[in-house]
Amino acid sequence: MTAFVELVKVHDRALRSVAWSVVRDPHALDDVMQAAYEKAFRSLDSFDGRSAMTTWLHSICYRTAIDHVRYEGRRRHADLDSVRDVAAPTGVAGPAIAGIEFAEVMNQLDRDQRVALMLTAGLGYSFDEAAEITGMRRGTLASKASRARKRIARWEHA
Amino acid sequence: MNRNDRPDELRDRLLDDVPATPTGFWAELTDRLEDADTDTGSTRLTTMNTNETNNRPPLRTRALALAAGAAVVAGAGAVALRGGDDVTTAADDPSTTTVDDTGRTTTTIEGGTTSAPDTTVPIEVAEAFDIERCYGLVDDDSDLGPASVSVRIRETDAGAVSATVSFSEPGVELEEPRDALQVFTGERLAEIELDGALLIRNRSDWSDFFGRAELWFDSVDELRLAEDLVLPGVDCGTLPGDTFAGAAEVAAAAPEAPPVAPALAVGSHCFAATEAPFAGSARIVVADDGTVEVRRATSDGESSRAGVGRFVSDLDIVVTVTELDGFEMEPFFERWIVADDGSLRPAEVVPAGVFAPIDCGDLPDGFETAGRAGSESLTAAGNGLDDVQTVDFAALGVAEEGCWYTDAADDRVIVFVNGEAAVVVLDGAPVRLDPTGDPVALPFGVVSTYAGGGVELEIIAGDAAPTEFDSERFNGSVSISLPSGAFLPTNGFHACGV
């Protein structure tokens, strides 16, 4: 167990960043991370080595965070479409972007965009690796990352 | 603030945005893992500990729907477990549950002993499950909302009952379906009570759970009553271990599923809605056997579902959603209602008739209705249409999805997706498209907005829109949103099969 804790300590920042991309709630983040690490610990026997340990851990953190968000959505008695992303700009213009902080720009991205951006631009994963972690199709993930980058770029030049 | 967009800066910004790990986090994790370590391989069955929530009396759920048309419980005396019996819950499980004369159970696992909670139903088994079947359950009256569980129950050679349980809730994915024994050690506890009741509880840290599902079937009658909500799509897969010999015989004796007289005739039915929050489209194809295929897309492109279901009454459709936003999902259920006026609405939505029936129409020659449209959203904007034309759809993962066009009566808009995108606005002229041909540039200057059919396309020409196509003068934006599973009605957009 000690070894496991030491292992996740090494990767905690990266793992935390993936969960953060999903939950965007600092209070929930710690709960998600605790749950994710426990899941990983309980599932160590099932780790088959077909992917890198870090990829496997990222995947668990991502899925745990997704579960949390969906659970919260259900708990709030949201309607059938509650699983949509929190703030998903659908038009070209989108929400106002000038004069806001980076965190707000991130909040304006949809969840998948944030995750795709974090995995690729933040953590340096390839599209293939990020797709493996999230279960998204590679093309989908690339698209999400691309849109997120464009959004960030708009903010940078606003 | 320096807003250079060098990759390193973006990386730093992303990582700096992440809240730091708080003090005490690792100590808490260590404690938690120590508990987990203790749990592993220990108590697997029973023990609803001293947690106040756990000690609540079992919530008997209402309106449980038991799936599988062949759900049958064997007749009295098929398996009789009584006081003193030892029940081995599975061949490979080291635990043994002993039933005493009062119905209290004691489970011994790997040398440890734990007593069952008082809430355990006293055991007096007159009948037992005698079948290997899949069950799908819907309980939308509980605070859990719709939930599904697939259960495989079979009698073992020793006369005991073993079960494989998969539990899912909308939007919640289990890592893997786990058999009942594994479920005991995980986040959720499932028990097959010896009187035939199925109990599913969450036994782990209750702060991690948003409700409690206890699905009880404590009588044969209740089981059979529930059969009128038969849900397809629960796949048993391959059972491990021995094949249950009695399955075929029992299945043959199973009652037929109740007849269904669906409000929608066999065939294809299209619906469209324009009002939030369900603006979009839905297509339902009713098969001869009453099963339906439902594809739905919302115009915002953010939530689309697809699945197969069936009528549970003449107006009520329950759909096993297997795909959400383009991703395969652990199946969950949605319910749709066909209103008297022929409109369609999700059962959980108050406004009736939000999806008005529309004419599916016929597709032009050379085009097929795509069962699945793109799953991507694309937005391009800027000065000059070249910004749009140079978008590499292939890189965005939608090139394979084909092309889209509208044959709406008035202004016509074509979006051609073939590695590159071209946007052409026609002004009432007939449309002839060749999916493999070059994009056609035609007189430009129409402001057209379309939101429907799961596709949202908006072309906004700038001021002083030219009457002739002039990419240099284009000063507007193009937004194309193609949600997964979009069904594109004839009077909106079509996806041409590629």
| Biggest β-sheet strands, sense, barrel of chain A | none
| Overall outline of chain A | globular
Largest sheet of chain B: 8 strands, antiparallel
Greatest interface by residues involved = A-B, 69 and 68 residues
Helix content percent band of chain B: 10-25%
Cα-to-Cα separation, first versus last residue of chain B: 48 Å
Radius of gyration of chain A equals 16 Å
* Beta-strand percent range of chain A: under 5%
Arithmetic mean of pLDDT of chain A:
76
Class from secondary-structure proportions of chain B: mainly beta
Tally of helical segments of chain A: 7
What does this structure look like?
The complex is a heterodimer of chains A (158) and B (498). With 158 residues, chain A is mainly α. Chain A has two domains: 1-79, Orthogonal Bundle (Rna Polymerase Sigma Factor, Chain: A); 92-158, Orthogonal Bundle (Arc Repressor Mutant, subunit A), CATH 1.10.10. Chain A contains seven helices and no strands. In chain A, helix 2 (26-42) packs across helix 3. Chain A is globular and about 50 Å long. Helices cover 10% and strands 31% of the residues of chain B. Chain B has helices spanning 7-16, 25-39, 180-185, 220-225, 247-252, 386-389, 393-396, and strands at residues 65-66, 86-88, 96-99, 105-109, 112-115, 137-138, 148-155, 161-168, 178-179, 188-192, 198-202, 267-273, 280-286, 291-298, 304-311, 316-324, 327-338, 344-346, 356-358, 377-383, 403-406, 412-418, 420-426, 448-452, 455-460, 475-481, 493-496. The model of chain B is unreliable at 1-5, 39-260 and 361-498 (pLDDT under 50). Classes of the chains: A mainly alpha (158), B mainly beta (498).
